[in-house]
Amino acid sequence: MNPETISPYSQYKSLKAKHPEAVLLFRNGSFYNVFQEDARTAAQVLGITTYVENDPHDTYFWAGFPSPALDTYLPRLIRAGHRVAICDLIDTEPRQHRPEAQEEARHEPPSYDLFAND
User: Fold this and answer.
1) Which runs of E-coded beta strand occur in 1-118?
2) Contact 34, 8 (CB under 8 A)
3) Are 11 and 90 in contact (CB under 8 A)?
4) How many other CB atoms sit within 10 Å of the CB of residue 53?
5) What distances in angstroms separate CA 51 from CA 2, 59, 93, one per listed residue?
6) What phi and psi values does residue 117 have, to the nearest 5 degrees?
7) From residue 16, how far is each of 25, 34, 106, 107 by CA, in Å?
8) What pTM does this model have?
9) Mean pLDDT of successive 10-residue segments in the chain (118 residues)?
């Protein structure tokens, strides 16, 4: 992992230390992810599955759901008595260093010479 990159779980730990009373939902593309005790809470209230992630630096629980489900799941969490914070992940990796950015940079659309037969 690039030392400049902060993982979603690291961001969770930092924010959870500041807001231990809230269930933190992290928007990650077209999904929302929750970690550790928040994942267990979400699984219990929402009926979603928790997973175990074993990365080289840590082992943690997480769960996720598609963004459109937020309209259903957010009220359920609040009605169950939970305070909820919606967070955006901070993208700390420069775009030019991401593999998909390099792929985009190398991609050239096909070109046609309309006057080749003239």
Assistant:
1) 22-28, 31-35, 51-55, 58-66, 83-88
2) no
3) yes
4) 13
5) 24, 10, 25
6) -95, 5
7) 11, 11, 40, 40
8) 0.71
9) 65 93 93 96 97 87 96 96 91 55 42 45
